Each structure stands twice: as C-alpha cells, then as structure tokens.
Amino acid sequence: MGVRRLVYDGTVLFENMRFRLEGALWTCLLGPSGVGKTSLLRLIAGLAPGALVVTDDGRGLEGRVALMAQQDLLLPWLPVIENVILGYRLRGTTRAERRRLRDQARELLARVGLERHAEALPAALSGGMRQRAALARTLMEDRPIVLMDEPFSALDAITRHRLQELAAGLLAGRTVLLVTHNPLEALRLGHRLYVLSGRPATPRGPLLPKGPPPRDPADQALLALEAELLRELTRSAALLEEAS
Amino acid sequence: MGVRRLVYDGTVLFENMRFRLEGALWTCLLGPSGVGKTSLLRLIAGLAPGALVVTDDGRGLEGRVALMAQQDLLLPWLPVIENVILGYRLRGTTRAERRRLRDQARELLARVGLERHAEALPAALSGGMRQRAALARTLMEDRPIVLMDEPFSALDAITRHRLQELAAGLLAGRTVLLVTHNPLEALRLGHRLYVLSGRPATPRGPLLPKGPPPRDPADQALLALEAELLRELTRSAALLEEAS
Amino acid sequence: PAAAADKLTVVLDWFVNPDHAPLVVAREKGFFEGEGLDVELVAPADPNDPPKLVAAKQADIAVSYQPQLHLQVQEGLPLVRIGTLVATPLNSLVVLKDGPVKRIEDLKGRKVGFSVGGFEDALLGAMLARHGLKLDDVELVNVNFSLSPSVIAGQVDGVIGAFRNFELNQMDLAGHPGRAFYPEEEGVPAYDELIYVAHKDGLARPELRRFLAAVEQATLWTLNHPDEAWNLFKATDKALDDELNHRAWNATLPRLAHSPAALDDGRYRRFAVFLKAQGLLKAEPPVASYAVDLLAEKQP
Amino acid sequence: MSRFLRPLVTAAGILLAWELLVRAAGLPPFILPGPGRVLTALAAQHELILRHAAVTLSEIVLGILLGSLFGAASAVLIAASRHARRWLMPLLVVSQALPVFALAPLLVLWLGYGMASKVAMAVIIIFFPVTAAFLDGLRRTEPGWIELARVMDASAFAILTRIRIPAALPALASGLRVAAAVAPIGAVVGEWVGSSAGLGYLMLHANARMQVDLMFAALLVLAVMALALWLAVDRGARAVVRWQPETLAHDHQG
Amino acid sequence: MSRFLRPLVTAAGILLAWELLVRAAGLPPFILPGPGRVLTALAAQHELILRHAAVTLSEIVLGILLGSLFGAASAVLIAASRHARRWLMPLLVVSQALPVFALAPLLVLWLGYGMASKVAMAVIIIFFPVTAAFLDGLRRTEPGWIELARVMDASAFAILTRIRIPAALPALASGLRVAAAVAPIGAVVGEWVGSSAGLGYLMLHANARMQVDLMFAALLVLAVMALALWLAVDRGARAVVRWQPETLAHDHQG
Ligand SMILES: Nc1ncnc2c1ncn2[C@@H]1O[C@H](COP(=O)(O)OP(=O)(O)OP(=O)(O)O)[C@@H](O)[C@H]1O
Ligand SMILES: Nc1ncnc2c1ncn2[C@@H]1O[C@H](COP(=O)(O)OP(=O)(O)OP(=O)(O)O)[C@@H](O)[C@H]1O
Ligand SMILES: [Mg+2]
Ligand SMILES: [Mg+2]
C-alpha cells in the first residue's frame, strides 16, 4: 500500500511512503513510541484518510480485515462473550447461528483462560484479562487479514507465551500485521520484521528470521538478529529524538 | 500490611494475607494476569476496603503515596503539562509556585521525550506517549512511597530502557512497589522480587538479585534468577488455571 | 326518546358557573330532551376559544360576550348572535370599599389591574373620560389570574373586568368588601354580557330555535323556583356547592335574559358606535348581519 | 434511618418549613395558605380531589409514555440522518416556544375535546428534554467503538442500534428524569386546552373562585404525584444503565 | 451550499410546508392563518411587535442567564452534599409542577409587578433541565480519575471543582441546550404573571381581540428568537467542550 501523506497538526508522519504486507505471512512492525505504528495500522484499516491500499487480487479490503487496536474497546454493557461475537452481532445473525457462535466463542475464551468470565462484564476484568478478551474477539472474526496493535502488551510472560502460540496457530496462513514493542516477540512470530523510523517515517527492513514461527527465542541465530533489531531500534529512536 | 479478605463476586482474592514493603527499596510484584496484582496495589493505596496498612513510623499513608495505575487516567481537557502537575493543582498552589512547577514539569517531560507535546491534549498522543505522560505525572508527585502498575508496558524496548533508568534514578531511596509482567524488568530494577500466586493469592519470594539497580540484564547471575522467576511464574499460572 | 334526539354541542365561555344556570337547568330538568335535543355542554379554559370553534364548525353554539362579538365579526368570523344569556353587563370596576378610592376621580395616578379580555382599556377609558381623566392618568397592570386577590392585597387600587356577581361576593367573603363602579352608569352603553352565537350558515337549522325555546323554559322555571333550581344546579358538581356560588347564583338570576331569543338591535348599534368611537371598530356593519332573533321570523 | 422512614421525615420537614414561611412572611391565606388549612381542605374535599387526580394521573402517564417514545424516536431519527437534523430540529425547537392558547384551537380542531388533545399538549411539553439529552448521548459515542464496528463492516444501522443507542442510554435516562419532572405541568397545561376534569381544571376553577385552600390542596396532590413519578423514573433509569459507574458515594444509598 | 444560504433555504422550506398544511387541512385563518397573512400582519404592525419583542428578548436573556446560573449552582450543591440532595431535590422537582397561576400572586407579592417577578417565573421554568443534566454529568465521573485524585490527597472540594465539574461540562452543555429551547416559553409564561408588555402579553391581547394574524405574527417572531438562541447556545456549548469527541460526521458541518 502507499501513503500520500499524513499530517497531524503540523507534523508530517508519512510522506510518499510505500509498505507491502506479504500475503499469508506475519509482518511485524517495531519502532519507537510515537513514530507512527498505530497511525500506519489505522491507515491500512482505512480508519484514517490519505492511504491508497492496493491488494494483489485487486479486491478491496472490506470484509477481509480484523483489527485489534491498542485499547481493548470492549463494550461495557455487553458480557465478555457477547463482546467476543460482536462482529457477528453487528453484521446480523440468526438466533440459531448465534448459539453456535457462542459455543465457538466459549471455546476461544477457554483457550485464552477466560472461560469462567464469559458472562462477566468487562468492568470486572483485570487489564490483562480485558486484553485477552479483545484478542479472542479479533480471532473470532476469522478474517484473512489481521491487524494487531500490541496485542500482548498487558500480559505476563507465561500467559503471553501461551497466547502467542495460540495466535500463531489460529492465524497461520493469514496475512498478519503485528505491531509490537518486544523484539523477541517479533523474532518469535514474524516472517518479515520492519522497524518504522524517521519523520516522515519509513519502514526499514525487512529482517527475515529463519524457520517457521513460533520459534524458540533461545536460538542463537535469533539472538544475532535481536542485536541487529535493537541497533535498528536505537537508530530509529535517535532519529525520532532529533526530529522532535 | 495485611489484608483481612477481598472478595469479588464470589471469588476470594486475598485471605489473611500479609505483605511487607521494605522502606527505601524497590519491591517488584509479578504474577499471572488476573491473579490480583492491581487489586493488591489498590489495597495498599487505600482504594479498596479490607486492608490494614501499618507503617514502621506509625504515621498514616496520607500525603506520602504516588500512584501510577494501569490506565493512564490523563484528564482529556488538560494539556499534557497540566496533567503532569495535576497533583499540585488539586492540592492548590499559588500562581508563582505553579509557574515554577511547570518549568520542573517541562524538564521532566523532556526527559520522557515529550517536550514538544507539553501543550498538546492527551487525545493527540500515542499510547506510549500517554503512558510516558502518566509516568511524568507520577514522578512529579515526588512522594516517598510510589506504587506503579506496569508503568512501561506500552513502551518500545529502547524508550523503556531509558525510562527505567530515569525512574531508577529519580526514585532511588524511595519505597517503590512496581507491578510488572516483564521478569527482566524486575531483575533490572528490583531489590526484592515477589510472585503473587494462588487463589486466595499470597506473595511468594522474595528473590534478591545482587547489586544496585539498574542492573545489566546480560549478567549471568541475573539469568539464573530469571530462570527461577520463570519457574515460579509458571507454577503460579498453573495454580491460577486450576483455581478457575 | 334521546335516541332520536338531535345532537347539539354548546361551548360555554368558561367553566360551569351560575351564569350558566338556564343551560344546566335545561339539561337537568330535561327541557332540552323535551325539545328533542341531546345537548352537550363543553367548558373551555380560555374564553376566546368557543367563538373560534363555532366558526370552525367544531361546535354548534358558543357562549360569548357581546363586546367580543363586534370584534369577532370585524375579524371575519362567520358568527351571529342568536340569543342572550345574561342581559346586563357584569363587567365592572371594583375597588376596596374602605380603600382610598371613593370616586373614579380618585384613581388618578393609581394602579388599575385587569385580566386581558381585549377591551378593558376601552371600558376604563370611557369611564375615566366621564370624570375628566385619561387612560394614561392611571397605570394599567395585567393581573391575569388574581383579580380580587390583587386588589385585596393592595397590590392594585382597583380592578377592571371583575364580574359584579362574583368578585364582589368573593371580596365580601374574604372579609374585604368592595365597591363597584358600573360601566353602564359611567358612560358606557349597556350591553349583553353573555350571548349565544352560532355559525352564519346554520341559522335555518330548527335545532337552534328548539334550543332557544328550551333555554327560555329553563330560565322561567329557574326564576319561578330559585331554590329548587339551586339545589338542582349544585348537585351537578360538588365543586359548585359553596357559599360563593350560592351568593353568585342569587346575584345572577335577576340578570338572566327573560326572553333569550329577543334581540334589542338598538343596544347592538349603540355599542358598535361606542366601540368605533374607542377606535376598536373600523366600521359599523348592519346589526342584522351579526345578530338575529330566530323566533321573530315565522317558521319556514 | 430506615428507607421508609426517611421520606416521611423529609416530608414533615418540608411541611414545617412551609408553615414557618407562611408565618414569618405573614402571608395572607388567599395568597399562600399554611399546610394546616390546605390539609384540612384536602381532607374535606378528598373524594372531589381524588376524582380529578385520577384523570390527571392518567394524562401524566400517557403523556410521559408517548413523550418519551416520541422524544427518543426523534433523537434517533436526527442522529441517523442529517436531513432530519436540518429540517426536523428547527421544528422541534420552535415547538417549545408555542404557548398553549395558540395551539389549543388547532388541537381541539384536530383531536376534539377528549383526552387526545390534552395528552397531545402534554407530549409537546414532555418530549423535548428527552430528544435533546438522548441526541447528545448519541453524538458522544466513543470513537474507538465506531471505528471497530466499521472495520467489522457494520452497517450504519447496526452501528446506530447496537453501539450508539446502548452507549447513549445513560443520556436518555437523564432526559427521562427531566421528562418525569415536567410531565405533571404538561398534563396541567394540557387540561387548559379544554376540559372539565383533572387537577389543572380544578385548580384553575378554584383559583378563579378564590377557593385558594382547595387549589393548594389539589396542587399538593399534584406535587406528590410529581415526586413519586420522578423517584420511580430515577430508580428505573439507574437500574437500566447499571453498567454506567456512578461516583457520588451517597447516590448508591436510598 | 453556503452556510449562509442554508438556513434561508430551510426557512423557506418550512414556510412552504406551513402554507401547504393550511391549504391541505383547509384551516380557517382564525385558527391558523397562512404565512402570507401572518407576514403581512408582521409587516403592518412591525414596530408594535418589535417593541414588545424587545421586552421579551430581555426577559429571555435574563431568564436563561439566571436560570443556567441557578441550575448549575443547585446541581453542584446537590452533588456536593447529600443533605442538599435530600432536602433540595424534592423542592426542585416540585417546583416544576407548580402552575403559573398558583405562583403568580406570591411572586407579585414579593417582587411586585416589575421585571423581577416575570424573570423569576421564567427562571423557575428554565433552570431545571440544567440542574438535572449537569447533576447527571457530575455523577458519572470516571472513577479512575476520582481515585487518582484521592491518592493525590485532593480535598473533596478540589475533586469537585477540578475534576467532576470539568468532566461534567458536556452534560451541562446539553442541559443548556434544553434551557435555551424552553427559555422563550418561560418568558411568555412569565409575562402572564402580570405585565402589560412583551410578546406573551401581546399574543394574549391579540387573541382576546381575535386578531389572530397579529398573534401569529408575534409568535413567529418568538419562534425566530427561540431558534436563534438555541443555535447560539448549541455553537457556544460545542466550542466550550471541544475536547469531547463527537462522532456524528455531519455534526461538524453547519
Ligand atoms: N471491579 C471488579 N469486579 C469484580 N471482579 C474484579 C474487579 N476487579 C478485579 N476483579 C477480579 O479480580 C481479579 C484480580 O484482578 P487484578 O486487576 O488485580 O488482576 P491483575 O493481577 O492486575 O491482572 P493483570 O495483570 O491482567 O492486570 C481478576 O480475576 C478480576 O476478575
Ligand atoms: N489524533 C491525533 N491528533 C494529533 N496527533 C496525533 C493523533 N494521533 C497520533 N498523533 C501523533 O502521531 C504520532 C504517531 O502516533 P502513533 O499512535 O501512530 O504512534 P505509535 O507508533 O503507535 O506510538 P506507540 O508505540 O506509543 O503507540 C505521535 O507523535 C502522535 O503525537
Ligand atoms: Mg501505538
Ligand atoms: Mg493489573
């Protein structure tokens, strides 16, 4: 896809920037806080004007994207389970179908460790639990293209590890854009790693870790890449520094 | 401090639990998502009933605690800088004093990399930038006891590293409770590491990493501790599993 | 038999009160029935609505005021007076008996309250002129909902628009007797306070004649059996059964039109002249165009 | 204090304040009678008053039901279409400026003398706070939710019915509270459109006849109805939007 | 379409609809005259109408100023103290049920026949929507903010003035919108309290004299005032709470 330009009160975030998501692969996007990762995600999702998104098959993105934003955006008046099947509720379903969907959702909730909170209201959940509910909602959408903005940021090491596996499994073969702050996470899950840097920002990379995800972070080759990634991030952070 | 019991609709989170924060030290609290870290923090801060907080000097906690919650809680109608000095605004200040405070706040914002956004409204900030603003607000409070709930969760590796240093510097000699999901972060910053586990939950530990923080994560001794920490976390996660 | 009776909707000028004695009696004693009429009495809260409703053919007959009739006709409402209910003015200028105002002259520079009726200024103006005063020698204040209270409480020195059969008794009962100045004694031509108006187009309807006949019967019966009539009247609504209404009843009976259909067109001409002089009327249409005696013409 | 005793104490306190006011200001009874006289009148005329109260009560209930319905509907309509916003909104605003005596003949012409015209008048008074409050609620939906729904390919209709409207329920609730408070006066004004029953009629009549005690007795009953209605709606509204956190400690207790 | 042309087109459209209604329903002019007649009357009597309009306008402005002030103040008071909530709230609710003719004598007795008593009546009608909406806003403050403030040792007063109130401004704004819409009728009712000037009085008088065209001409002017006021408050309110995101696309344009 290409971005003509995106300006937020005076600051030019992107200018004539091009970015390609390889089909059926996980693309990870890293970069210092405030560089524009979320904005890029929103551009792709068509939530901000100025982007020109082209798909290989020429079809539009309508109906093919699932988005997990940086905030969980759970609807406070719906129990967790209803939040999980929100997409289907919004698109309209028969009662029977909905029952089926709920079972499916319950299973998903079980796998993110929320089975016992399916009927709870979001207000009764902890930060990480809310994030897991949002993840379940995103996976429930079952879309070919999935955009996720720091989906694991509020999770402890163990849970995060488990959910990474889950996502990697369920989203294998999908076109995924994963915005993350955690180099190891990127190395573990991503096929193509980019670091967004500069102002206006451009994605640098890709780094291409070997082997199919999910990978074992302990692997030596990965550690090498991690070092490189960190260097890249440091440069990018420095660039952003002087830009502001 | 001690907790008689905290029950959330039927689930007993804590029961006759005791927990001690060593003065002038950083205590890190880890634990699986949903185990009760935030709840414990809120108990200490006096935001949930049922806790009996005793201080060594026998004085109450009023006026001695600064809290950084899991959500940034920035006031949407105040520019970042005013949000940073919110505590002083709420307690009331003279205009002159306020000018002085703003300068101080601006400096702090510079150190968290937000100098150029001092006058922006929170809505114009990225997730990580909001978190940094909240951190600045907490540091600005300059209190002897500081409670922080995942203060760096939305930050990229580099920024996070820098801000950990900043916090470690500014809060050296304070009594700090840091809730975190990141074992390395705990090992880097904490004097005493606890893992909250079980339901009702009890803090297990402490682990006592050697040397003064901030430490270098690459250090071998730390890696050993990390392994132990991860084991502890895994057990705790398992416990929470079967509990629910 | 009520089944065959012709339906007739009569909109009163206001809520039911002793002014409406003949109508209520005619209904209760069955005089309407006797004339083969099924009459519904409707009571509005705003005296200005009934003529409009008749003009809009939402009702057959409205109880209205002669002075208003002249204005309504001028404004093009297709209305015609077909009968009289109360044959004297009721409107009067009332002050406290033991107040500072003994004579109309004493009003100079004082407050006079009124409740918007449309031509209080005209009445008062004429009464003042009689005594060498002009309208702007007094301060007119609109006291809408509280004519007697405002004068009793001394907020105004007098009120125009008070009904002699009510407000006077009211003030008596409240322990602050009043003194009335009567327009017809102070230079205002006499007029019919309450009249029946109907739509121009429906004058030939026989129901109207039968209605007037029934009202006449009722009036006479009421005059012949005042106490029986009162008991009949107060029994229709508990809210009517009090000292004030009883006094008003007695004060009203002598003023009822003894021959409701009869038309004194001189009286209408004179009042038209008066209103024209007051600048309220632009022209004097022939009386016959807005007031008739249905029973005078021989039955078709 | 028991939640049943509480209101009684409050009521007693208010009656006392009333009595004191009358004495202190030395108000003549034909302007504001003391509670003593009014309660006496109430006792003496209770079946008369209650008969009229019944009429007014039904007008109030009908008025608030139809008013809320119409208010909510117009708010949704306006939120849904900018045309509605452009053409309907001015009419709704103007409708609030129409005095009863200008409307009465029209209403009678169209709806006759019966209940209908009175209720219509009441509705005109009652609906607007509902519309305004609900519309503002519909406007202020968290943008993130809307964006999420868009990505989920929700139709504008689905977004309205499944996100905007539920999110705006607290606003609707506060509109309903106002509606409940103005419903009684709405019914009273409605009765001016022409009727021979109802507390409004009774009061107007009593007032014109200087039966001030009776008038205030009727008014007292109306006031009690108003309070009861308001409390009911308040409770109800809160029950509906339970998920909405309230942060005034003392609001949680009766 | 230019934002100046727009309202004109709308106005024209509404006048047309009015004319059509009158013709279609075959309404007699003495019940609802068509725009033609009304505009003629307006033209013929404009200085009379404008003289009265000036009076009413000043009542409206005073009424909405004092009403908003009183409304906001009482809301804050109630939010601040449960005693106020317990004793004041019932009175405020009841105040909405009091018909003008019951209050008029009292107001006149206390405030005389001047501007004061009319404005007082208008205020009684105007303040309540402000109180109710603002109070609801004050109730719904994000709990997290309150907790943060508590940890910062903010006094209850500081929490109220620096967090609750600013957070409730959008709610206050929607209350003010309703207030703006009811202010004109408030002023008109105020004029019934006893005045010999103002559009309310003029309408009553014209109505009594069957000058229906004149009455509706005055009403037209009142309606225009109402719309202008409402638009002004709407714009103003939105400007004040700019930080509050609005999510109805078409609300951003005129
Ligand atoms: N307001 C509430 N009502 C009901 N249950 C609650 C509420 N807040 C928290 N809980 C429950 O208490 C438990 C602990 O919540 P808490 O927020 O302390 O977890 P946590 O350790 O902070 O998790 P995380 O790391 O995800 O933030 C959770 O199971 C949650 O469901
Ligand atoms: N609504 C907005 N108005 C003005 N500026 C904005 C807005 N949203 C984002 N920005 C600016 O755009 C830049 C990029 O924001 P973005 O959220 O994309 O950063 P990010 O890479 O996602 O950061 P983080 O990792 O902290 O989420 C930031 O400098 C921010 O100030
Ligand atoms: Mg982001
Ligand atoms: Mg937490």
Automatic annotation (TrEMBL), chains D, E:
Keywords: Cell membrane, Membrane, Transmembrane, Transmembrane helix, Transport. Signal peptide: none annotated. The keyword Transport applies. It is found in: Cell membrane. It is a multi-pass membrane protein. InterPro entries: MetI-like, MetI-like_sf. The keyword Membrane applies. It comes from the Bacteria. The chain crosses the membrane at residues 60-80, 87-113, 119-138, 178-202, 214-233. CDD domains: TM_PBP2. Pfam families: BPD_transp_1 (PF00528). This is ABC transporter permease. It comes from Benzoatithermus flavus. The lineage of its organism: Bacteria, Pseudomonadati, Pseudomonadota, Alphaproteobacteria, Geminicoccales.
